[in-house]
Amino acid sequence: MMGNGLQGALLGVCASAAEFGNTVTGLVISAYFVGFLAGSALTPRKLREVGHVRVFAALASITSVAILVHALFVDPLVWAAMRFVTGFTYAGLYVVAESWLNGYASNRLRGRLLATYMVISYIGMDGGQRLLGSADPNGMALSCWCRFSYRWRWCRS
Length: 157
Known about the structure:
The chain is an all-alpha fold. It has helices at 2-17, 22-50, 52-72, 76-104, 110-131.
């Protein structure tokens, strides 16, 4: 959750540093929510077909790759596509985790368990956003996304 919170905040800063423009940056960032809608609609079918563990492993792996692609290609279309993929996979991860918790919790404990899950999720997202202020976004401490030149696509020295 911290990584997702950090990525959402950091991409806006890096898109500004890459001079994408406000409209393009808004479209790139909003692609996450289009993917989120698609992921929440399509994941339950895969859960029924192959199960929680396989779906979770696949979505977590795809999420990791999608986030890393941002560092390789500083291009608004690539970033929008990866934001869509990230939204899709995070929605799927939420569906997997929540359905698994819901399926294993007794009726007496279900409300408390899901409430605790939500609190932990929001604390993680908050922690990730707070990491943005812990280091220079143009440096290597958070990531090297902002160190890439939009025009040359290679790290500046």
